[in-house]
Amino acid sequence: MSKQQSHKARRFTGYHAAAILCAFFAVIIAVNFTMATFAISTFGGTVVDNSYVASQKYNGWLEEARQEKELGWKVAKPVREEGRLLFSIEDALGQPMASANITATAEHPLGREPVQTLSFAEASPGQYRSIEPLPAGRWKLRTRIMRDGRERDLTFEIQ
Fold it and tell me: Is the domain of 75 the same as that of 147?
């Protein structure tokens, strides 16, 4: 008897077909769940809620940005210090900018946390510390800096 004759050919049964189908869909479902998890955990939210309306305001935003840039204020990205945010601001001459009024709205990118309103007090000339603490996490900070009737709006991503 030869080797080929001693082994019977295995039949492809319904159990085999069911196992292949289950394995195929298990892989597809696992990949979909993995990709959905990555998408939800890394998506930073929308930039604008309505792109058509934003396009109508675009030239106005460019003009505002140009006017704000002409002020020459240098604003460093805020840093966290003991749960509070700290801004460093210099005027057009590179001197610490005193007597500014700063307010900010912190929004969680995915809306998981309520919107936080922050106000700032001058800790030292050119240094402003938030009065309210900001919870840990990722935040979009919309900031308005006002001094001598002039203002500048800035947006920061805080980690």
Answer: yes
Position of tokens 């601001």? 89
**Domain of residue 27, residue span:** 13-42
Instruction: Please tell me the pTM assigned to this model.
Output: 0.61
Burial class (CB within 10 angstroms; exposed 0-12, middle 13-18, buried 19+) of 120: buried
Dihedral sign of CA atoms 151, 106, 59, 88 in order: positive
- Secondary structure of residue 66 in the 3-state scheme: helix
pLDDT tens profile 34-73? 999 988 887 666 677 788 888 898 898 888 888 878 888 8
The answer to whether residue 110 sits within a structural domain is yes
Find the largest Cα–Cα distance for the chain: 103
The alpha carbon dihedral of 95, 99, 101, 102 has a sign of positive
DSSP 78: P
8 Å CB contact between 102 and 126: no
Distance (Å, whole) CA 65 – CA 68 = 5
Looking at the 3D structure of the chain, how many domains does it have? 2
> What is the helix (H) or strand (E) element at residue 25, kind and residue range?
helix 14-42
